[in-house]
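Provenance

Sequences were taken from public entries as deposited. Structures were produced by running a predictor on each sequence independently, with no templates supplied. The record for Anti-sigma factor antagonist from Terrabacter terrae is shown for reference.
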Amino acid sequence: MNAQVSESDGVATVRLSGEIDTYTVPEVRRAFDKVVATTGAKVVVDLRDVTFLDSSGIGAIISLHRRVVAAGARLELVCTGMPLQLMRLMSIDQVIDVVPVAC
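Predicted structure for Anti-sigma factor antagonist:
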């Protein structure tokens, strides 16, 4: 699992890759902790290179969403493949903005 955090033009982006599970989610949470959400800002979590995502990873994303919304910002998930199917199956796309992208 790899996590990269960047910021450009007021948009904070966390790009995740590899498997996100119980063993790697602490690293994901550390990356999410680096994100500064301010009123009106946008936070993007890029899941395009994620090959596996379990409930602990979903929990980390939901925790980030709560923190971002509480700060007056908005969260957007960029997904394809399995992560996109999971977001739709669990109706997370009804609560968090999910941007589907082609492979």
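The two ends are 19 Å apart (CA to CA).
The mean pLDDT is 95.
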